[in-house]
Amino acid sequence: MSGWDQYITNLTSQGISHAGIFGADGSKWAASPNFPNIDNLKEELPRAFSAQPAGILVNGEKYIFIRNQDNFVVFRKGADGMVVVKLNQAYIVSIGINQKPEMLVGATSKIGEYLKNCGY
């Protein structure tokens, strides 16, 4: 288990279905088992923080943009939610199956703030 896995375990233990930490270059630092494929990850994550994000494709299905607030962006697809938190060198992605995106924001933002303060 890498040091990054503890953050994924923390998120999934709080009821988040899938969690991953990805470098700005698109490399996977850690992810929960069966983390879904984010199409064009390297391009999509930075684009999520643009002025007019269109959404993100996950396993070929589009999550639509809900809101952008400081260092995180919220997306939704039906009953599923997704939060992307931007760090200095990476992104944290939390996906909740049958979970409203607001349920994901607290835990993901808290870990994101901690890692950002540590320089990541």
TrEMBL record:
Pfam families (alphabetical): Profilin
Entry keyword annotation includes Cytoplasm: yes
List, in alphabetical order, the Gene Ontology terms for molecular function in this entry: actin monomer binding
In terms of domain of life, where is this protein from?
Answer: Eukaryota
Cellular compartment(s):
Cytoplasm, Cytoskeleton
Query: Which key words are in the record?
Result: Actin-binding, Cytoplasm, Cytoskeleton
Any one Gene Ontology cellular component term annotated for this protein: cell cortex
Key word Cytoplasm present: yes
Assembly, in brief, is: Occurs in many kinds of cells as a complex with monomeric actin in a 1:1 ratio.
Q: Which PANTHER family match?
A: PROFILIN (PTHR11604)
Similarity field:
Belongs to the profilin family.
Protein name per the record: Profilin
